[in-house]
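# nightly structure sweep
# worker-07 picked up a monomer target from the shared queue
# config: single-sequence mode, recycle default, output format = structure tokens
# input follows
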Amino acid sequence: MHTDVHLQLHALRAAELRTEAAEFRLSRAGAPGPGRLRGLLGWFLVDLGLRLVHRPHVHAARIA
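# output follows
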């Protein structure tokens, strides 16, 4: 295949893929995803874990 033809075919396919991606993004923009709650729960657990890791250690005074 000649390089110019290959380049033109690649450009056409890239344009088609960009169009499909834009249509997909527009179709998914208004609909809340099923993973939204799972994502929120995941980030909540990450935040909670970071708070537990960075909690200052409390040492009780020992009577010797």
